[in-house]
Specification:
Number of helices: 12
Helix content: 55-70%
Structural class: mainly alpha
Distance between the termini: 88 Å
Shape: elongated
């Protein structure tokens, strides 16, 4: 495809990519906040927590479903941005497309215990176990532990963790390459990398704040409403890498002139010709008198 065809295709696809990125940024954040509000009065011990979960099953599953829809939007936004990067950098391995897509879908369905709510499948399994515990006779701590030793819950937890690692790896590689080809400003490229790290190591963030912020910024960027302006690579349809720190320093030193290519020294400026000395009319008249 020519650069003009790439730009035209991306403008056409932006009609679904912009709402997908906005949904991906907003819904998991809203679901996490609502879940924290619901769970703020939950008992800290496991038996009491299971009974609380049984009493609030519908609301908690609803928040998990909202989060899952958000991660479906994340998969769509990831697909759009990956295509844009690969159109400008064909050497980017296509395997990272599937790594990111599978990670986003898996994280939406199964989730990770590092962030709340869990994926909708895991949350339904937890709610079923909570109902079984509430219907049991003794409701002791050991019974609560035994209920969670089932194979179905164990598999869902493993799938959730694997999906989180896949999503994190995909986001880090995608943000790094998008920054290198000039599609993302450097600051937002690094924020995208950080959002991938926070998927698996939330650093005390029970909800994906950084990821949501980055995805909303991506939605504005695709829509052409980014506060700092649209990076030139989106308009050119080809890679336009950002200048390195050394190139920026050289441009400042040369007053904005482009830096000389590596290995070449700029040609020395021609020496200035001294201005002619002014002629003194009085001295010329005195010389004529002496001759006369």
């Amino acid at each position: 495809m020519t650069p003009a065809e790439i730009v035209a295709q991306e403008r056409q696809d932006s009609r679904w990519a912009v709402p997908a990125a906005a949904i991906a940024g907003a819904l998991p954040l809203i679901a996490g906040v609502v879940y924290l509000v619901i769970a703020k009065d939950s008992p800290r011990n496991q038996p009491g927590g299971l009974l609380f979960l049984r009493d609030h099953t519908n609301a908690i599953i609803a928040t998990a479903a909202v989060k899952t829809v958000g991660f479906l939007g994340l998969a769509a936004a990831y697909l759009y941005l990956f295509r844009a990067v690969r159109a400008r950098r064909p050497a980017m391995p296509r395997a990272f497309l599937w790594i990111g897509l599978v990670g986003a879908l898996g994280a939406g369905l199964f989730g990770s215990q590092a962030q709340v709510p869990f994926g909708v499948v895991s949350q339904v399994l937890f709610s079923i176990k909570a109902g079984d515990f509430a219907a049991s006779g003794g409701q002791t701590y050991q019974q609560a532990v035994d209920l969670f030793s089932s194979s179905a819950l164990g598999v869902s937890q493993i799938l959730g963790e694997l999906s989180s690692f896949a999503l994190a790896g995909g986001l880090i590689v995608l943000a790094l390459n998008a920054m290198r080809v000039g599609l993302l400003p450097r600051a937002f490229g690094y924020i995208g990398i950080a959002s991938g790290v926070f998927v698996i190591i939330p650093f005390g963030q029970p909800i994906p704040v950084v990821l949501s912020f980055w995805l909303i910024a991506v939605a504005l960027l695709i829509a052409g409403r980014f506060p700092g302006g649209t990076p030139p690579a989106w308009v050119a349809g080809e890679a336009l890498p950002w200048p390195s720190l050394q190139q920026q320093r050289e441009e400042r030193e040369t007053g904005g002139a482009p830096a000389a290519p590596a290995g070449r020294r700029p040609a020395p400026a021609p020496a200035a010709t001294p201005p002619p000395r002014p002629v003194n009319p009085g001295a010329a008249r005195r010389k004529r008198k002496k001759r006369g």
